[in-house]
Amino acid sequence: MELTSIPGVGEKTADALQDLDDPEGALERGDVAALARASGISPGRAARIARGAIRRNYDDAGNITATPPARNIYQEALSLLQERTVTDYASQRLETLYPSAARTRIEDVRERTRTAMERDPSPAVRDALAGVEPLSEPTDLRIRDRCLATRDAETYAKAREAIPEVSVELVEDARTLSELARGYATVVVLDESFAGTDLEGDVRIEPDALDDPSSVVPERTLAFFAQNRDTLQAAARVHRQAGLDAPCDLGALESALSRLDTDGEVRGDEELDRLTDAVNDIDAAVSEAERVANDHLREAIEERDVTIEGTDLLSLVERGAGVDSLLQRELADEYDAAVAAARETLVETLGLRDTKSIARRAFGDEPTYPVEHDESVINRLRTELTAARDRRATEQKHELAADLAGMREDCEQLVERALELDVDLAIARFAADFDCTMPALGGEGFAIEGARSPLLDVPFEAVEPVDYEVTGVTLLSGVNSGGKTSILDLVALVVVLTHMGLPVPAERARVGRVAELQYYAKTQGTLDAGAFESTLREFGELTTSVSEDRPVLVLVDELESITEPGASANIMAGILEALADRDATAVFVSHLASEIRETAATDIAVDGIAAEGIEDGELLVDRSPVKGQLARSTPELIVEKLADEEADEDAAFYQSLLEKF
Ligand SMILES: Nc1ncnc2c1ncn2[C@@H]1O[C@H](COP(=O)(O)OP(=O)(O)OP(=O)(O)O)[C@@H](O)[C@H]1O
């Protein structure tokens, strides 16, 4: 795939993407998290690139939101979904959903949405999802107890490239090889020519080692699983809890992972634990053995009366013999028992097996008081135990790596499915939280029934449902705070969600295909001449851009505020006529609906959000616009109320005011 053919991807970005493991796959999957791992590419940019790739695949002209308020609605829709994700991945992945102009794209997302809406976002699944994140590659793995050796310069270069985790050494002959073996626990020789040579230490002749690096460094396989262990365990839990089809045997994976520590060491092996503890506890065990022996001996000596004949004493003194020889002569049996206790304590405390006889030699038969160990024997014991521990660890690593090696691809799928489930669950929760349905696609304009906006400043439970259908060009009139702006937001939201392929917050909805959503929010106050001119230009361009194959939905909120009322009524009438001529769909909210209708040369439909009356100073409003009915304005309603309520002479004044409406 030519990466530069994706909209928004230049040479530099393409180079950065090319360094990823599988840039095409990441683009195909819309894997924003993977794309964001390319150097210099932020998650926001990664999402734009993924959207660009989708647009190219679907030959899609792009996002239908054509104005800042339309884009805000899209952002709000996205936030409502993103708030319902557990993982960062799903949150970023949702950014690849955009309101598309391509029917095939919308249909593809709708298919996924239907499946997503059937999923059950149970707390147990969400809990498990909290532990899942995209897999990562371990870096800087260095193995220091092994090295590779060769006398061939070419093999040396190949080895450095194939197995960078260990040192590679150039050797000249058997002597230099033996020297090397003294510095490493294991030396793997890559040259056949050394076979048959008598070498000291753990030197292995393995000319094919470079073909299977994990035979030399099982840590390479293990490091990936160790680094991602918690994520993989969580992804397995997600599969169990959600009843998802797993790509591999979850039990086998979980049991293999339970034998691995996050630092890549094998755990749960009794023999390895025994040897590790023995190496760690050796000094403490030696002290304990000495203490046991000396306690024994001290007690024995304390309890004994030693009788010594004068001649013996003399001869002892003459020979310069110390108390040791007295010990040997008088307490030989006790000494033997004390040493036996010391040996037993050392062997027992360290749980020794193969190295028992070495350990026993740590306490000599020659009587001394206090009983002391032979440090050189203990050093030998330490060396033997350490070597046995390392051998066992490496064996175990090979075994575990062999179990896990074949599972890598399945694990990648396992995590991907779990993360994608989070995307589905966010959609399912959004649909459930806002009582959504899948809208029907097609026809002219739009029709919504029982629609409730999640964008209002009131809690969703308090939102009153709205029905509204528009085909063609319509003015929407209504009392102050009747909910006109809220309806434009709601219509924009429903249109955006529909074109994203998502469900909409309504009992029923039908949305005609739109190539552009042109939403203009109310301006704050009159525009100066320059701003007024550029606004007019915008509408000029807009009215000429509408055509049958470029259906445009125009939503405009109180355009009259851009200039003085008379002029703005004329301008709006003109824009509406032009849009009506081109069969566009448009809703213009305005307090000048009646003036505009009078000015316009063609018939313009007017709908109204009507107040049913005033109660305690509050308007009672039916939020669904009434078709074909100009709503009475708030001032008119208040004058009418005063005309009804006031005493005779005042009532006449209010009556005359009312007649002017
Ligand atoms: N469907 C609804 N359910 C509940 N409350 C609503 C609904 N629609 C609007 N409201 C409430 O009415 C308030 C005013 O709504 P909105 O701003 O849409 O009215 P408006 O007709 O555009 O007002 P104005 O004529 O002053 O511009 C909202 O902030 C919201 O609190």
From TrEMBL:
Protein name per its UniProtKB record: DNA-binding protein MutS2
Any one GO molecular-function label of the UniProt entry: ATP-dependent DNA damage sensor activity
Cited function: Has ATPase and non-specific DNA-binding activities.
Designated gene of the protein: mutS2
Cofactor(s) in the UniProt record: a divalent metal cation
Keyword Nuclease carried by entry: yes
Lineage: Archaea, Methanobacteriati, Methanobacteriota, Stenosarchaea group, Halobacteria
Keywords: ATP-binding, DNA-binding, Endonuclease, Hydrolase, Nuclease, Nucleotide-binding
Location of the region described as Disordered in the Swiss-Prot/TrEMBL record: 1-24
